[in-house]
Amino acid sequence: MTRADLSKTPREVAAMFDGVARGYDRTNAVLSVGNAALWRIATVRAVDPQPGERILDIAAGTGTSSVALAKSGAEVIALDFSQGMVDEGRRRNPGLQFVQGDAEKLPFGDAEFDAVTISFGLRNVQHPQVALAEMHRVLKPGGRVVICEFSRPPLGVLRAGYHAYLRHVMPLIAGAASSNPEAYRYLFESIRDWPDQTVLSQWLRAARFTRVGYRNLSWGVVALHRGRKPAGASAQ
């Protein structure tokens, strides 16, 4: 399997990421023109991890974002659906706790985490609204969710330029930088077809998160979404 279609069946997505695990972080740094590190810094600041907190990092890949979160002294669980990503993460970061698992069926009990975060992974989940409900379930009352995801630049001229970059430039870069450029074609298509900032905010509210908001990064190429599980909320 080299390329998944946008139906995003779990088996196809897992196989795709298994195939690019070893070079994934390097390729992302190249494709984002160095912005991946800046987006990660913004995400960690939004999560605001505190010593002693328990944080779940979903779609953690090889654990790059998890390592940044753990520097605060928080206990971070790095979860990914791809066994290849988990294996590579354990090899690179033996001090982190990695779990292979499905964002739609999180292998944790109710109200276990102070914060849940996912970066550039929600659009690869087959049923993202189910994953949001699972995030709500495993959060403690008062817990916070932070989602960093590709989005749509609000200005038409920027949006047109960005789509041209996705369509014409990024495939060339991926062909040179990645061991599996066909897998990145799926990623480009998933970015193009992912809903905008307003729709994701609506999904968060539908999952019973409050204090929902977002801010654009890189002129809206990426959006950083936040929400809270109400302090008086039940586990479910």
TrEMBL record:
<dbReference type="GO" id="GO:0008168">
    <property type="term" value="F:methyltransferase activity"/>
</dbReference>
<protein>
    <recommendedName>
        <fullName>Demethylmenaquinone methyltransferase</fullName>
        <ecNumber>2.1.1.163</ecNumber>
    </recommendedName>
</protein>
<feature type="binding site">
    <location>
        <position position="62"/>
    </location>
    <ligand>
        <name>S-adenosyl-L-methionine</name>
    </ligand>
</feature>
<comment type="function">
    <text>Methyltransferase required for the conversion of demethylmenaquinol (DMKH2) to menaquinol (MKH2).</text>
</comment>
<dbReference type="Pfam" id="PF01209">
    <property type="entry name" value="Ubie_methyltran"/>
</dbReference>
<dbReference type="InterPro" id="IPR004033">
    <property type="entry name" value="UbiE/COQ5_MeTrFase"/>
</dbReference>
<keyword id="KW-0949">S-adenosyl-L-methionine</keyword>
<comment type="pathway">
    <text>Quinol/quinone metabolism; menaquinone biosynthesis; menaquinol from 1,4-dihydroxy-2-naphthoate: step 2/2.</text>
</comment>
<feature type="binding site">
    <location>
        <position position="80"/>
    </location>
    <ligand>
        <name>S-adenosyl-L-methionine</name>
    </ligand>
</feature>
<dbReference type="GO" id="GO:0032259">
    <property type="term" value="P:methylation"/>
</dbReference>
<dbReference type="InterPro" id="IPR023576">
    <property type="entry name" value="UbiE/COQ5_MeTrFase_CS"/>
</dbReference>
<keyword id="KW-0474">Menaquinone biosynthesis</keyword>
<comment type="similarity">
    <text>Belongs to the class I-like SAM-binding methyltransferase superfamily. MenG/UbiE family.</text>
</comment>
<feature type="binding site">
    <location>
        <begin position="102"/>
        <end position="103"/>
    </location>
    <ligand>
        <name>S-adenosyl-L-methionine</name>
    </ligand>
</feature>
<keyword id="KW-0489">Methyltransferase</keyword>
<keyword id="KW-0808">Transferase</keyword>
<feature type="binding site">
    <location>
        <position position="119"/>
    </location>
    <ligand>
        <name>S-adenosyl-L-methionine</name>
    </ligand>
</feature>
<dbReference type="InterPro" id="IPR029063">
    <property type="entry name" value="SAM-dependent_MTases_sf"/>
</dbReference>
